[in-house]
Design brief:
The protein is mainly alpha-helical. About 75% of the residues lie in helices and about 0% in strands.
């Protein structure tokens, strides 16, 4: 059975998705979603263990050997991403039970879980496939289901947010498929490992350089890098709470993975940074994103929108690590993929708890909740401290590696900017904390603590924020190993 884990990683949520519709019962569909997501997590952890001990796993679909057939190829890089996506999915699915029943019409709940599992399947498929056209196929599966999930929000603005995401997402996907088509026209191959071997022979071709540009724009739009981020704030703000927590923790991380995989594995480090000078484009965009989006977040009155703009800034940190073009910088990027998923998942889940009890996530509506919902707001505080980068949290580990990467390149002004933007994060986190703990409750009725079904997944992520902030050796070691693999290109 273990030899078929690569295909089961995708097949399990894919088969469970239509079953959620056939059962026609919200709680039965929820049970299927929980089962499928936890099985997916078990498979992802098993694959990470197998790669750690046995090296790269190559799985030929239908016994058609690559590069002719479709290959699922698992190394330490995508095994790491699989664990991130499956881990968040495994915690969001139980969290969704009571939240979805409050925020979505009963007749649509089975549809919600079906779309959720399709989105999970698509994200896992992007990470595990070794075929560039399959990347596009799974990208469309995850994107189309994400549009539907956002549109299920009870606020009417969820529809316009989903439509904007659909338009911009379609533009990004078009750029990506054009880039893939141009690569195929030059090499006759869609296999990543094969492309990595064939492309050096046609590097000087204008077609390859144009393909590189199309892919760069498409990936940057999908990962919401400034200034291609306009779809993200509204999508996160008006989507149902479990959808926001899931997408903020996974979708943009997988898009960053696509960027890393194509530019460092398929094209190679030398082409990307020496010939195309990718760092000269990414570095200024990342720095502007970090500063401007942190500043915009400070002035938001809706906490979900505040955290959405914070996410754009955090994407800037990930891209900043890549722009250093060093193993240390890339380690910071890969580490922040994991750490940001933990911190932002906890924060959005905490806001889901507030939404469940108060019916609003505006800062003014959260006055006095520090005493009325102490467990929920304590989770928000810990997640906020991690976002700032306080020691003993995962956020500190990420920023430590980013600063090391900047100093390694001799870019001390960048290191100073990382510290200054951490203080800006402290400002917008403090705005929420100050209202929750130092103002009197003014809402109608008696606000009380959220249900335990919402609290335990939230606090599971909070606990992981603290655990991996204190003992970061394992995660940092895996991230560094993955960075070395990416810098070296396709291995044997």
């Amino acid at each position: 059975m273990s030899q078929h884990f690569p295909i089961l990683q995708v097949v399990v949520p894919l088969l469970a998705a239509p079953l959620c519709i056939f059962v026609r019962n919200g709680r039965a569909a929820w049970g299927l979603a929980v089962l499928a997501s936890w099985v997916s997590l078990g498979i992802a952890l098993a694959l990470l263990g197998q790669v750690g001990t046995g090296g790269v796993i190559s799985y030929a679909i239908g016994d058609w050997l690559p590069p002719i057939g479709i290959e699922y190829r698992v190394d330490i890089v995508n095994a790491w991403v699989l664990v991130i996506v499956a881990g968040i999915g495994a915690l969001v699915s139980p969290y969704a039970l009571v939240s979805v029943e409050r925020e979505i019409e009963a007749r649509r709940i089975p549809l919600f879980y079906s779309a959720y599992l399709l989105c999970l399947c698509g994200l896992l498929g992007i990470a595990i496939t070794g075929d560039v056209f399959n990347v596009f196929v799974f990208l469309e599966i995850s994107s189309l289901s994400a549009y539907a999930l956002i549109a299920l929000g009870k606020d009417r603005r969820a529809l316009t947010s989903a439509f904007r995401y659909l338009v911009m997402g379609s533009v990004g996907a078009t750029f990506i498929v054009i880039g893939i088509g141009l690569l195929y026209s030059m090499t006759g191959s869609l296999n990543m490992a094969d492309l990595a071997q064939l492309l050096p022979g046609v590097w000087e071709s204008r077609t390859v350089r144009v393909a590189y540009g199309f892919l760069a724009v498409g990936f940057c739009l999908k990962l919401a890098l400034f200034p291609l981020h306009l779809w993200l704030p509204n999508a996160y703000t008006y989507a149902p709470s479990p959808v926001t927590a899931f997408m903020a923790s996974t979708a943009t991380k997988v898009a960053v993975y696509m960027l890393l995989r194509f530019f460092l594995t398929v094209f190679g480090w030398h082409f990307s940074f020496e010939q195309m000078e990718l760092d000269r484009v990414l570095l200024p965009l990342a720095l502007v994103a970090i500063v401007s989006m942190s500043l915009v977040a400070i002035f938001q009155v809706n906490v979900k929108r505040l955290l959405a703009y914070s996410s754009v800034a955090q994407i800037g940190y990930m891209v900043l690590g890549l722009s250093f073009a060093t193993v240390t910088g890339l380690t910071a990027t890969l580490l922040h993929l994991f750490n940001h998923a933990l911190m932002k998942g906890a924060l959005f889940m905490a806001m889901g708890c507030v939404m469940y009890r108060v019916g609003s996530v505006r800062i003014g509506a959260m006055a006095g909740l520090g005493r009325r919902m102490p467990v929920t707001m304590a989770a928000f505080v810990v997640g906020g401290l991690s976002l700032v980068g306080v020691p003993l949290t995962v956020g500190f580990v990420s920023k430590w590696y980013l600063i090391l990467g900047a100093l390694e390149r001799g870019w001390w002004p960048v290191a100073v900017l990382i510290l200054l933007t951490s203080l800006m994060a402290l400002v917008y986190v403090w705005r929420v904390v100050e209202v929750a703990y130092f103002r009197e409750y003014q809402g109608e009725g008696e606000a009380r603590e959220a249900p335990w079904m919402l609290l335990w997944p939230t606090w599971a992520l909070v606990a992981l924020n603290l655990y991996f902030g204190i003992d970061a050796g394992r995660t940092a070691g895996i991230a560094r190993q993955a960075a070395e693999v990416l810098m070296a290109g396709i291995g044997p």
